[in-house]
Amino acid sequence: MKAYVYGANGAEIAEIAKPSPKGTQVLVKVHACGLNRADLGMTKGHAHGSAGGVGTVLGMEWAGEVAELGPDAKGVKVGDKIMGSGGAAFAEYTLADHGRLFRAPSNMNFEEAATLPVALATMHNAVVTSGALQAGQSVLIQGASSGVGLMAMQIAKFKGAKLVIGSSTDAMRRGRLKEFGADLAIDSSDPGWVDQVLKATNGEGVDLIVDQVSGKVANQNLAATKVKGRIVNVGRLGGTHADFNFDLHAARRINYIGVTFRTRTIEEIREIFDEVRKDIWPAVESRKLQLPIDTVYPFAEIGSAFEHMEANKHLGKIVVTL
């Protein structure tokens, strides 16, 4: 089968053996894949958790149909239209754990379904479970114009946040954040953004920051969070290391929470997918929670899809079809 593999000469389409499902695995015939920022790093040979390096089939998000079941797989049958996440997604067939997938709603095509699994699982966990957002509270999403950021704002609004603030350093994308739930859009490269947040929250700061940037905005985040507020760190687009004001962290008594899928067990991931199904799935089926598709590429042009992602001018998801 064809797959997008990181090899000695970089990432390229190659012929590899079709996998077979074992245990609780499901073999998926892939129809569409969503690109994610971590994929871009892996096309350059960077590791993502324990995955990466020569021989790695790239990709982590897909939509397709069940082709075969492992002996212990439950909850789906051959032919079911599904979407999910996991490694080796950029291929004609991929394997998925039966607890790491969703049934694709009948009112979505494969391209639309492929945009959702990573964003739904990541940001429901960050905003609702780890972030403990309650109706009537305020939230700031750092890096809000990314696919997962757009979903985070929508989930926050759906869960009853009274004030949703989104950040983007790109003027065009910042101008569109209100379409996806933002009441206020800020530029995190503007030194005055903290004052804008404080003004919007009567000087108190937000209840919750979901931070995909970290690095250079770490201390500003502390200043923009209310006393006894919460910061959920889900990324490092602004760098992995930076100065950190421990005194301000202590003075504001902020609960600083780190989350990632890279160190989660499959049992933990299954629980996250279960929470999405239980809490917000009707909003997915009604299309209240959805992501825009920026561009669709055929699989043969997946290299161009990554060039488009690296140019960083898109809003919404880049999708590849098979």
TrEMBL record:
Domain of life of the organism encoding this protein: Bacteria
Gene3D superfamilies hit by this protein: Medium-chain alcohol dehydrogenases, catalytic domain, NAD(P)-binding Rossmann-like Domain
Domain Enoyl reductase (ER): 7-320
Regions that span the bilayer: none
Pfam families the UniProt entry points to: ADH_N (PF08240), ADH_zinc_N (PF00107)
One of the record's GO molecular function terms: oxidoreductase activity
InterPro entries referenced in this protein's UniProt entry, alphabetically: ADH-like_C, ADH-like_N, ER, GroES-like_sf, NAD(P)-bd_dom_sf, Zinc-ADH_QOR/CCCR
Name assigned to this protein: Quinone oxidoreductase
Organism per entry: Bradyrhizobium valentinum
Top-level taxonomy: Bacteria, Pseudomonadati, Pseudomonadota, Alphaproteobacteria, Hyphomicrobiales
